[in-house]
Amino acid sequence: MTSSTLDPISLEILWTRMISMVDEAATTLVRTSFSHIVRECHDYAVVLLDAEGRLLAQSTQSIPSFICTLPATARHILAKFPRQTMKDGDVFITNDPWMGTGHLPDINIIVPIFHKGELVAFSGTVAHSPDIGGRIRSPGIRELYEEGLRIPPLRLMHAGERDQAVFEILEANVRISKQVLGDLFAQLSANKMLEKRLRELLATVDVDLASFGYEIQSRAEQAMRADIAALPDGVHSYKMEVDGFGDPVVVNCRVEISGDTITVDYTGSSEQLARAINVVPTYTFAYTCYALKCILSPSVPNNEGSFRPITVKAPEGSILNPRFPAPVGARAMTGHLLPPAVFGALSATIPDRVQAPPGSPLWSCHLTGTNHGEPFACLFFLNGGQGASATADGYPAISFPSNLGNTPIEVLETQAPVRVLRREIRRGTGGAGASRGGDGQVLELQILADAPVTVSFMANRLAMPAEGLDGGEPGAPGQVLLNGEVFDPREISLIQPGDCLTLATPGGGGFGAC
What we know:
Hydantoinase B/oxoprolinase family protein, Oxoprolinase-like, five-stranded antiparallel beta sheet, alpha+beta
């Protein structure tokens, strides 16, 4: 069955079935993972790619940025390992930031899928590992080599046989190897589940996967182009600023609409820094596309065609296109500014579809040390308030533009020697407006370890809050306190047993004048 013989009903059934297969593989990953980062916070993605490494279908619960980065990762794998050298049972791995999601903790697994001896597709997974060695993740790190183990594109398995050296190197360079390797095996299970389900489909349905992929990608591209063409041509700009290291970090966003294409240019943004808040081009592209997909063509399932009408530019050497080996571990602190910057640029043209800046970038805290002689490493997430829109208040304590869950108290207390003393909504911290921004949250915890604990944070909007949009008021800034005193979260620190940390996340911006 080729694309020319596929009627719309059959096409929809097949497409939906593929999404269901990817979702089943994602469920396999979540249920077999060892870390709460995947299991509770859902910091992962699963995708099905065609034989050229182009996106066909994604898991429903996925980190938005990973959807655009995994195809790029597959194409980097193909550049090093041509398809004629690939065998059934091969598995490929990398966490190189410039080839993957933009920082080292995210491990990418790519598996070629064969049907009747022909390579027809790839299954791809990425999951945030609970540890990747090096110094713990911090915006204050000054070069990539401090950030942990960098894995170039490698064969993890050769025709079904493990490359034991790769496993041993990974195990020897991380703090909590059981969790790290457990999550890696969970990824392999998810990849294999997707491979199994696709083979079952191709064995029972006479469909040419290449033709089918071309058809759905073309339809998604046509839908996106039609939505872009419905907007008036023009150039729109918006500048965002957020706390930096001395000078503010600037994201300068210029959106040009021309016919059925959009070009987003970040010229004028900050230069790259010797700090870990730089963003590699794949991540810059991914979160720009995500913003445009949300407001222009949200109802069409994501695939490669959705992104073809979009061009993204950022000058080399800028914070959104840094030169290797720039530190990038805390790249979300800048990358999460891109969707609200795009929204701000288009707010005058389509005010009913955008929202004010959120109380993100996403906050996280990383604790490592020993307790009773046993090592521990715990990374947990907590969210600020969502920005308001023209039609609705923002939600409190919700992640945007990522969709990570807040780490549950029970999980946090299990993974690290801490006691959570308080967790509550920061009432009234969302910006005022015709629609109010979402409130942040407060998390207070006490260190129970019997030895000093190393701590790092991804915490921003401490000095420069989330702005309002269209006359809305800004949200409240965030705070980090140590034993009740203001604490600088930008550098890795050592805190003592009995110390109390208070993390108060920012509120989202309001929308419209009151």
